[in-house]
């Protein structure tokens, strides 16, 4: 790698690391597991009538451009979170806890690779990185969960005060205890806001220092509060480089698909154009078809296909497009893991004065020779 500058310019390293085969492969494993887990949860809960969104909607959303897909996912999560319906909360909880487990392993492995490469210029294999994230799984898992539980605890205390206020003649307790309610509300906002801002530091803390969930959480809050201007400078540069990396990956993938479709269409002619039209009808429905359910949209889009082989060809091409989109998202995951590792190591140097090259390395116990037979 290029010489470290140990400032915001090192996000350039994270940009190129987004296309590192090893990190992209680890990100791809995480994306495949994400695809299977989310599809399974949506299928199970839609089958019993808890939710109306099935796995097909999730798959089609993945085929959208990354920014469009990200906005749709955020809107879906926001709608479920604010719905006030426990039937939406249950699958949402299953989904989030499963995703946290998946990315504790995949994200931990990516940041472990990044920490050793950026700090020491040394490599680590797939097996070793996954073995490390597996050994530190519960630390990775609890790092973001602990502050969330803390915020929920304060919310619960305020909720209990509200329940007491429902009892006749006890409404006055809400007034008398309102200063305490304000304090709990402040603590809730503090834990949530600073936690969301500094959560990017939690996983690389464990990967770079071999620490636990409590240490990663405390460092995240400490670093943000100690050097907020420096932190936001690094974070802003990470966002800029990240947008550029995602744009490069997405544009390259789109150019690859369009070139492939155009060149195949030269030989296959109108038949291939019909197949591409059916695919576009599934990915981006227009007109009246956009108002129908997804199964009906697929049926309408494929109605123009004149044979079973054309239908199978369209389905196969959709599968290839989905794999290509997963690769783009894998590149995004590789960038995020690399950028947050650089961000953590730079902030650690700013706050604690620890050199960037100081990264935890597991000691391998020397083999103990067997005692000689007497």
Please outline what is shown here.
With about 375 residues, the chain is mostly helical. Helix content is about 80%, strand content about 0%. Helix 5 (about 85-120) crosses helix 15, helix 7 runs antiparallel to helix 9 (about 180-200) and helix 7 (about 135-165) crosses helix 11 (about 215-225).
Describe this structure as you would to a colleague.
The protein is mostly helical. It is built from 15 helices and no strands. It has helices spanning 11-17, 21-47, 55-62, 66-81, 86-120, 126-135, 137-165, 171-176, 178-198, 202-209, 213-226, 228-268, 270-283, 294-302, 308-352. It is flat.
Secondary structure elements and pairings:
Elements: H1 11-17, H2 21-47, H3 55-62, H4 66-81, H5 86-120, H6 126-135, H7 137-165, H8 171-176, H9 178-198, H10 202-209, H11 213-226, H12 228-268, H13 270-283, H14 294-302, H15 308-352
Poorly predicted regions: 365-374
Distance between the termini: 54 Å
Helix content: over 70%
SSE order, one letter for each helix or strand = HHHHHHHHHHHHHHH
Instruction: Work out the helix count.
Output: 15
Structural class: mainly alpha
Strand content: under 5%
Mean pLDDT metric: 87
Largest sheet: none
Q: Give the tally of β-strands.
A: 0
Query: What is the global morphology?
Result: flat
The radius of gyration is 25 Å
């Amino acid at each position: 790698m290029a010489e470290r500058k140990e400032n915001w310019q090192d996000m350039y390293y994270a940009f190129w690391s987004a296309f590192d085969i090893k990190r992209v492969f680890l990100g791809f494993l995480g994306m495949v597991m994400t695809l299977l887990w989310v599809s399974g949860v949506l299928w199970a809960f839609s089958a019993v009538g808890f939710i109306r969104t099935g796995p097909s909607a999730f798959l089609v959303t993945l085929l959208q451009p990354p920014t469009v897909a990200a906005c749709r996912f955020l809107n879906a999560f926001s709608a479920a979170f604010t719905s006030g319906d426990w039937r939406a909360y249950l699958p949402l909880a299953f989904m989030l806890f499963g995703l946290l487990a998946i990315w504790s392993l995949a994200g931990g492995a990516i940041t472990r690779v990044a920490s050793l490469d950026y700090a020491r210029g040394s490599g680590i294999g797939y097996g070793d990185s996954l073995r490390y994230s597996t050994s530190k799984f519960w630390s990775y898992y609890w790092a973001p969960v602990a502050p969330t539980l803390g915020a929920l605890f304060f919310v619960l205390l305020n909720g209990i005060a509200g329940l007491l206020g429902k009892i006749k003649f006890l409404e006055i307790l809400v007034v008398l205890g309102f200063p305490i309610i304000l304090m709990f509300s402040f603590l809730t906002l503090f834990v949530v806001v600073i936690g969301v801002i500094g959560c990017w530091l939690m996983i690389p803390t464990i990967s770079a220092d071999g620490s636990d969930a409590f240490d990663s959480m405390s460092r995240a809050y400490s670093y943000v509060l100690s050097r907020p201007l420096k932190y936001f400078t690094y974070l802003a540069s990470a966002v800029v480089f990240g947008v550029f990396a995602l744009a490069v990956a997405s544009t390259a993938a789109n150019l690859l698909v369009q070139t492939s479709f155009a060149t195949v269409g030269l030989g296959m002619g109108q038949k291939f154009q019909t197949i591409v039209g059916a695919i576009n009808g599934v990915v981006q429905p227009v007109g009246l078809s956009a108002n129908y359910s997804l199964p009906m949209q697929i049926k309408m889009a494929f109605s123009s296909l004149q044979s079973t082989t054309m239908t199978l060809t369209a389905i196969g091409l959709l599968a290839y497009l989905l794999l290509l989109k997963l690769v783009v998202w894998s590149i995004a995951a590789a960038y995020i893991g690399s950028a947050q590792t650089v961000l953590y190591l730079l902030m650690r140097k700013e706050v604690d004065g620890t050199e960037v090259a100081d990264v935890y390395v597991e000691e391998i116990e020397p083999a103990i020779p067997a005692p000689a037979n007497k």
